[in-house]
Amino acid sequence: MDNQRTKMLGENLTHYRNLQENGSVNLIEFHTTDNRKFGIGNPDAIKLLLSAAVTELERQLHIAQSGGLPERLEQSREYKAAKVLEQALNDTGFSPERFAETLPFFHKTLEQTFFRTIKACIIIMAKRGSCRIDSRNQASYEMCRMLAPMLEDTDLPFI
């Protein structure tokens, strides 16, 4: 872990969170490599850009604190699939209910594999240390902690 990088990321994250929370930003300016400047003054766009900046800084800080994503994960098909899902989930128009409605149209074996994946996600989230949980996912963490014991005790047969 690079303590200097971790410290810098933490300070930047605090700064951007403060900007996001106090709503004092009224212009974001971009400087291009050919020395041109473009500005965004739309409050909704500014809010979205600050949210993206905070999310990315949180991700970078987590990676810096944990020593980074293990190579065995980064090179896996599962990681690549999770990144595609991450992009879909990050779209404000994403509907979990509509996503769930698509499941019956999966091949039945894949529907079962999908449920195994959700089961594994719940169990792993329940085992996370509470220091990695913040107010945005506290309720999810608590629900996972309640569901995990039942899921761990229930096998899903391969049929």
Structural notes for this entry:
By secondary structure, this protein is mainly alpha-helical. Helix content is 65%, strand content 5%. The chain has 7 helices and 2 strands; from the N terminus they run αββαααααα. It has helices spanning 3-22, 43-66, 71-74, 77-89, 96-102, 108-127, 138-152; strands at 28-31, 37-40. It has a two-stranded antiparallel ribbon with strand order 1-2. α6 (108-127) crosses α7. It starts with a helix and ends in a 7-residue tail after the last helix. The relative contact order is 0.07.
What's the arrangement of secondary structure elements?
Layout: H1 3-22, E1 28-31, E2 37-40, H2 43-66, H3 71-74, H4 77-89, H5 96-102, H6 108-127, H7 138-152
